[in-house]
C-alpha cells in the first residue's frame, strides 16, 4: 500500500510504525507542518490497558517507553486545607517531547518518510495518488472541515477555561488541587512525567475566569508557540502555595475552551480520520494521545486483517467507535462535573473526594474498595456519621426519613406501567406484582401512574382512582404490603393528557386506539408525535374539573392507606406538557414564561396537598430535560423543582424526556443522575427536599456510589426489579449485609444465603509465597525519580 498521513503527532507516527512492521513494503509518508522539536504541552498519561496493547504490538518501542516512565498509583486531593490520598489507581506518564522523539526515531529505523516543516499537499491530490490517506491533523482538522458534509462533525465548545502549563516541581502522585478564591473555585490537574517536571493544568469556569480578570487578553491572538505571559504571571502568584517555590513553565500556553469533537462518520472512500480529528475526550479522564495511539493500533490491525482498504476502514470504525463513545460518555460526565464544581465545595471532605473520584462513573464504590479498601471504609464511615447512624453499612441500607415517613432503606421500586387493569380496577396481577416487590426488600414500592379519570388514562389497561371500587381494590394491595413487609407503598397520580387513548404497550406503544377511543386534551392542540391524536386545548373549566379529579383521587388514596403520593409531572403527560415549551404554546397566563407554565401544575399540587394528610409525604416526578432544542432544560428543571419544594413537596423524583417523539436522549448507565445531582445541590439542601435519582441504575454498586457521592437521597430502580423482584434482598446477600435495612420475610429466610455454585467450596492450593513487603505498598505507590525528588508540601 501507498499511504499518506497528514499530521506527525503520536497517533499518526505510531500508525506509520505499526503498518511498516506489518509489511515493510508499504510506502508510507508523513506530512508534519511543525519542526521535529516543536512540541507543545508537557506530559502524557497512559493506562495499563493501553500499555499492554503497545507492548503486544511493538516490544522495542514499548521497552523504550517503559524506561522513561514515571509510575505511581496514588491520587492526592487537596481540598479545604487537607490532603486526602487514594491509592490503587495505576498511572504511567512520560514527556510528550520524549514520546515524539521515540516515535520519530522508530519511523527512521523502519523506513517511514517524514516531512517536517511541510504542509501536506491538497487532500484530493493525496487521495488520487495513494491507496490510503489518514487525517491525523488534530482537533482543528482541515481535512475534517473539507469533508464536513460526509463526516458530519459536531463540535461542542465547553464552558470552562483551561491553560496547559508545566512545573519543575516533581509531584509524587496525581494531584487534584481545589482552590477557593474570592472569584470562585479554580482547580489544578497535575501529574509527574519525569524526574524533572510535572504537568500543571489550571481550569475554572468561564464566569470565574472573567471575575478574576483573566479576560483582559481574550481578544489577543497569540501566534503558535507564543504564550499568554500576562496570565501565566498572574497564575504564578495565585498558585504560589501549590508550586511551593518551584517554577511555573509555559509552552504555547494560552486560555482555551475544551471542544468535544464527535463525527457521524470517520471514513470516506480511502480517507480516514484518526485521533483528535475524529474525536476528543476531556483531559480529566485521560489523554488524547492515549486515544490516538489506541486508534492507530486498531486501524493498523483492521487494515491488515481485511481485504481491501474500504472493508478495513469499515471494520476499524465498527470496532473502535463503541470504545470511543464509551470513553466520551465518561469524559462528558467528568468535564460537566468540573464545570459545576462550585456546587460541591460545601460537601464534607471525604464525601467531596469520593464525589470527585466517581465523577465519570468509571470508578464506583465497589471498584474503589478493591483499589483502596482503607479509603473506601472511610467513605462508608463518613456517610453513616453524616446520617447520624451508629451502624456502618452499605449506603443503600441506611435508613431515610422522608417527611414523617421512615424508610428502612434507600431503594425505591420505580413506577412502571403494567397496562393490566380492567375498567381502571387493579386486580390480582397488581397484588402479586407490587406485593412481590414489597416482599423483595425495597424500602418504598411505587405504583404505576394511577389515573384520575377515565379520560385521563393512557390506555384501556391503566388503573385509576375515580371510583370506590378502585379504591377498595387498592386498599387490598396496600394492606398486603403493610401486613407482610416493612416496605412503604406509594401512589403515583396523574393524567395522560395528549398521550392518552392509546393501545396497550405490547400492542403498539403510543399508537392511538383503532376503536373505542376517547378525546384527549392538552395545553395546546399539538400532537405528541406523527400519527398521534391532536389534543383539544383545555379551557379554564377543564382545568377546574381536572383539578377536582386529582383532589378526589387523592382522598381515595388516603382511604386506601397509601404512605406517599407522587404527582406525575413528567414524561409528557398532562401536567408535564404544561411545563414544556415544546407542548405548551398557550398565549394566556398558563403559557409563555416558565412561571406561567408552572401555574396549572402548581394549582393541582396545592389542591392535592390540601386534602392529602399532612403527616404523609408528597413527591413530584419531573422530566428534567425534553432532549430536544428549545425544550425544557436542566436549568429550567432546577426552577421547577424549587417551585414545587416551595409549595411543600417533600421529594423531587428526577426523570427526563418522553415529552415528544422527536427527542434524542443520551442513553447510558445512570444517564439521568446528573439532573438529580444538580437539583439536590441547588434545591434539595436549601429547602430540605429529598431528591430521587432514576434512569438505568441497574446495580447495587451504582446505588451506593450515587448515595455516597451525595448525588441523590434515594435511588429508584425500575426494570431491574422486573428482572428480579427480590433484587434488594439479593443485593444485601451479595454485600454480606444483615441488618434492619434488609429484612427477609420469615418464610424466605432459608434463602437469605446466596446459593453455592460449582467449586464454590473447593479447597484452593497455595499459589503464592507470603513476603515481608508492607501490605499497602502496592496500593500506595508514589513516583520517586531516580535523583533527589522535589519536596512535597
From TrEMBL:
It comes from the Bacteria. InterPro entries: Aldolase_TIM (IPR013785), FAD-bd (IPR002938), FAD/NAD-bd_sf (IPR036188), OxRdtase_FMN_N (IPR001155), YqjM-like (IPR044152). Residues 396-732 form the NADH:flavin oxidoreductase/NADH oxidase N-terminal domain. Residues 2-328 form the FAD-binding domain. CDD domains: OYE_YqiM_FMN (cd02932). Pfam families: FAD_binding_3 (PF01494), Oxidored_FMN (PF00724). SUPFAM superfamilies: FAD/NAD(P)-binding domain, FMN-linked oxidoreductases. This is Salicylyl-CoA 5-hydroxylase.
Amino acid at each position: 500500500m501507498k499511504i499518506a498521513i497528514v499530521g506527525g503527532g503520536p497517533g499518526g507516527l505510531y500508525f506509520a510504525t505499526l503498518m511498516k512492521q506489518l509489511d515493510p513494503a508499504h510506502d508510507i509518508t508523513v506530512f508534519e507542518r511543525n519542526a521535529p522539536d516543536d512540541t507543545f504541552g508537557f506530559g502524557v498519561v497512559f493506562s495499563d490497558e493501553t500499555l499492554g496493547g503497545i507492548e503486544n504490538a511493538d516490544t522495542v518501542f514499548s521497552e523504550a517507553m517503559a524506561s522513561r516512565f514515571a509510575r505511581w498509583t496514588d491520587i492526592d486531593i487537596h481540598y479545604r486545607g487537607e490532603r486526602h490520598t487514594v491509592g490503587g489507581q495505576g498511572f504511567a506518564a512520560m514527556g510528550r517531547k520524549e514520546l515524539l522523539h521515540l516515535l520519530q526515531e522508530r519511523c527512521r529505523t523502519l523506513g517511514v518518510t517524514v516531512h517536517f516543516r511541510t504542509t501536506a499537499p491538497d487532500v484530493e491530490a493525496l487521495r488520487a495518488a495513494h491507496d490510503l490517506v489518514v487525517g491525523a491533523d488534530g482537533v482543528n482538522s482541515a481535512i475534517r472541515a473539507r469533508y464536513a458534509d460526509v463526516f458530519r462533525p459536531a463540535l461542542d465548545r465547553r464552558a470552562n477555561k483551561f491553560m496547559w502549563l508545566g512545573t519543575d516541581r516533581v509531584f509524587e502522585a496525581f494531584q487534584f488541587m481545589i482552590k477557593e478564591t474570592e472569584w470562585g473555585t479554580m482547580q489544578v490537574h497535575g501529574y509527574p512525567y519525569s524526574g524533572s517536571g510535572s504537568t500543571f493544568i489550571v481550569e475554572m469556569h468561564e464566569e470565574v475566569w472573567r471575575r478574576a480578570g483573566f479576560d483582559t487578553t481574550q481578544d489577543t491572538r497569540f501566534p503558535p508557540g507564543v504564550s499568554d505571559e500576562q496570565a501565566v504571571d498572574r497564575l504564578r502568584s495565585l498558585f504560589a502555595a501549590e508550586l511551593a517555590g518551584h517554577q511555573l513553565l509555559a509552552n504555547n500556553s494560552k486560555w482555551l475552551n475544551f471542544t468535544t469533537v464527535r463525527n457521524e462518520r470517520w471514513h470516506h472512500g480511502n480517507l480516514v480520520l484518526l485521533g483528535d480529528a475524529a474525536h476528543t475526550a476531556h483531559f480529566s479522564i485521560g489523554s488524547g494521545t492515549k486515544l490516538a495511539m489506541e486508534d492507530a493500533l486498531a486501524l493498523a490491525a483492521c487494515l491488515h486483517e481485511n481485504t481491501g482498504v474500504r472493508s478495513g476502514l469499515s471494520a476499524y470504525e465498527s470496532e473502535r467507535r463503541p470504545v470511543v463513545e464509551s470513553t466520551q460518555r465518561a469524559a462528558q460526565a467528568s468535564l460537566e462535573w468540573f464545570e459545576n464544581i462550585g456546587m460541591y465545595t460545601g460537601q464534607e471532605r471525604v464525601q467531596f473526594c469520593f464525589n470527585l473520584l466517581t465523577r465519570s462513573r468509571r470508578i464506583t464504590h465497589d471498584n474503589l474498595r478493591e483499589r483502596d479498601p482503607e479509603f473506601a471504609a472511610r467513605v462508608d464511615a463518613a456517610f453513616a456519621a453524616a446520617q447520624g447512624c451508629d451502624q456502618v453499612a452499605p449506603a443503600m441500607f441506611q435508613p431515610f426519613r422522608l417527611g414523617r415517613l421512615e424508610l428502612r432503606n434507600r431503594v425505591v421500586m420505580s413506577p412502571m406501567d403494567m397496562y393490566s387493569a380492567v375498567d381502571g380496577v387493579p386486580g390480582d396481577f397488581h397484588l402479586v406484582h407490587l406485593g412481590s416487590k414489597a416482599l423483595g426488600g425495597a424500602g418504598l414500592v411505587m405504583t404505576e401512574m394511577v389515573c384520575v379519570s377515565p379520560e385521563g388514562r393512557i390506555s384501556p389497561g391503566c388503573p385509576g382512582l375515580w371510583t370506590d371500587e378502585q379504591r377498595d381494590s387498592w386498599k387490598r394491595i396496600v394492606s398486603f404490603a403493610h401486613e407482610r413487609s416493612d416496605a412503604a407503598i406509594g401512589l403515583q397520580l396523574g393524567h395522560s393528557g395528549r398521550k392518552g387513548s392509546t393501545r396497550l404497550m405490547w400492542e403498539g406503544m403510543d399508537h392511538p386506539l383503532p376503536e373505542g377511543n376517547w378525546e384527549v386534551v392538552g395545553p395546546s392542540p399539538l400532537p405528541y408525535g406523527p400519527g398521534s391524536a391532536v389534543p383539544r386545548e383545555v379551557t379554564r373549566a377543564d382545568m377546574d374539573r381536572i383539578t377536582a379529579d386529582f383532589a378526589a383521587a387523592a382522598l381515595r388514596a388516603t382511604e386506601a392507606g397509601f404512605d406517599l403520593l407522587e404527582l406525575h409531572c413528567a414524561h409528557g403527560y398532562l401536567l408535564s406538557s404544561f411545563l414544556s415549551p415544546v407542548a405548551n404554546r398557550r398565549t394566556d397566563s398558563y403559557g409563555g414564561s416558565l412561571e406561567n407554565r408552572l401555574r396549572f401544575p402548581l394549582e393541582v399540587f396545592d389542591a392535592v396537598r390540601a386534602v392529602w394528610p399532612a403527616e404523609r409525604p408528597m413527591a413530584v416526578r419531573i422530566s428534567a430535560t425534553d432532549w430536544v432544542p428549545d425544550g425544557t432544560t436542566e436549568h429550567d428543571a432546577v426552577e421547577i423543582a424549587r417551585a414545587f419544594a416551595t409549595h411543600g413537596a417533600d421529594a423531587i423524583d428526577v426523570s427526563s424526556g418522553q415529552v415528544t417523539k422527536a427527542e434524542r436522549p443520551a442513553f447510558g448507565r445512570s444517564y439521568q443522575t446528573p439532573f438529580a445531582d444538580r437539583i439536590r445541590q441547588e434545591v434539595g439542601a436549601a429547602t430540605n427536599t429529598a431528591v430521587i435519582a432514576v434512569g438505568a441504575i441497574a446495580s447495587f454498586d451504582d446505588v451506593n456510589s450515587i448515595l455516597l457521592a451525595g448525588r441523590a437521597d434515594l435511588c429508584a430502580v425500575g426494570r431491574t426489579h422486573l428482572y428480579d423482584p427480590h433484587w434488594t434482598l439479593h443485593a444485601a446477600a451479595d454485600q454480606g449485609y444483615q441488618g434492619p435495612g434488609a429484612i427477609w420475610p420469615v418464610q424466605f429466610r432459608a434463602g437469605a444465603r446466596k446459593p453455592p455454585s460449582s467449586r464454590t467450596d473447593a479447597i484452593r492450593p497455595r499459589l503464592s509465597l507470603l513476603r515481608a513487603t508492607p501490605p499497602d505498598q502496592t496500593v500506595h505507590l508514589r513516583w520517586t525519580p531516580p535523583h533527589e525528588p522535589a519536596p512535597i508540601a
